[in-house]
Design brief:
D-amino Acid Aminotransferase, Chain A, domain 1, globular, 27% strand, alpha+beta, 3 domains
Length: 330
């Protein structure tokens, strides 16, 4: 570990995940600089690239407390989310804010080429590509993981065969944020409801899946080769049986468990196939003991579980950044 080199953390403050990681990196003696990306900011953080003119290219990033050049950094932790105003419907972003967002997006997209000597968590292109749920399901299947029967379509007739083998759920292909005050969580849909909503299915691709009975669910956080599985007893309460996120702040839902070696290996193969070193994977364990892959969030949250049951995920990420080896898990 080069203690004199920086870990550059890109994200948006306030973010308790960034604060916790920065504190843990300090314990490891690793320098870190937090670049707070906000297109509405008036210049607290800045960046400059120099290219051409017969001179070597250079990069300078200025945060609230540090100035870091490309040669000063050996690691990048990427936690940038699209700004909320750019996500929600209703024209909440002004023309100026939308323009700033687009310009920042292009500038930040150049960083992998300008900081190509650094280790990225996650690598930039794989991080964004892995957010595609169709790509995830295909990769999981190729790595031997079981996937529920799935139909992504704009044609309601193509969904009907799913009802012949049981219940069906609908989930979004993109983020679940529908408006500034509304989330579209995973929900069951009946055949009659599908028939009533044929026109809605026709205007945008929809993801439908065969509903799987659950003994419990798993949130598996992977950091390098460290696999951290947390059991979620979603079936203990009726309102969390379909989507536990509706009431996730219940400590009694969570416990640390051990994965079968074969499942662990398939998950690591899956991460490798997507080019990821960090991610939060959601699985179902059926009453028959089968493990079903649902999805991965390459920039997933973890702090709420850590605070509830003490699983040291932040420490594991910091250890990976500072030394490249897992500490708390195998």
């Amino acid at each position: 570990m080069n203690k004199d080199a920086y870990c550059l953390i890109f994200g948006q403050l306030p973010d308790p995940h960034i604060d916790a990681l920065a504190e843990e990196l300090t314990k490891f003696g690793k320098k870190r600089a937090i670049f707070d990306y906000d297109p509405t900011d008036e210049g607290t953080h800045s960046l400059s690239f120099r290219l051409g003119g017969g001179e070597p290219s250079s990069t300078r990033l200025t945060t609230a407390t540090e100035t870091v050049h490309e040669r000063d950094a050996d690691t990048v932790f990427w936690r940038v989310k699209p700004p909320l105003k750019a996500l929600v419907a209703g024209g909440t972003a002004s023309i100026d804010e939308d323009f700033r967002h687009r310009e920042w997006e292009k500038a930040l997209g150049a960083l992998p080429a300008l900081l190509d000597h650094a280790r990225w968590i996650n690598p930039y292109a794989p991080h964004w590509l892995a957010g595609n749920k169709v790509r995830q399901l295909q990769a999981a299947q190729r790595c031997g993981l079981q996937v529920p029967a799935t139909v992504i379509t704009t044609c309601a007739d193509d969904v009907l065969p799913l009802f012949e083998t049981g219940e069906v759920i609908y989930k979004t292909l993109s983020h679940p944020l529908y408006s500034s005050r509304e989330l579209i969580l995973t929900s069951k849909i009946t055949r009659a409801e599908l028939e009533d909503r044929r026109d809605m299915v026709a205007v945008a691709p929809c993801l439908f899946q065969q509903y799987a009975e659950k003994a419990y669910e798993l949130r598996v956080t992977i950091v390098g080769t460290s696999v951290i599985p947390v059991r979620i007893d979603s079936q203990a309460h009726s309102h969390t049986r379909v989507d536990w996120r509706i009431d996730q702040l219940r400590p009694e839902l969570y416990s640390v468990v051990t994965l079968p070696a074969a499942v662990r290996r398939m998950l690591l193969d899956f991460m490798d196939s997507l080019g990821l070193v960090f991610g939060a994977i959601d699985l179902i364990v059926t009453p028959e003991g089968e493990y079903l892959f649902l999805e991965i969030n390459p920039g997933g949250q973890w702090l709420w579980m850590e605070r509830m049951i003490g699983v040291p995920i932040t420490r594991e990420i910091a250890a990976f950044i500072a030394g490249g080896e897992p500490e708390a898990f195998g």
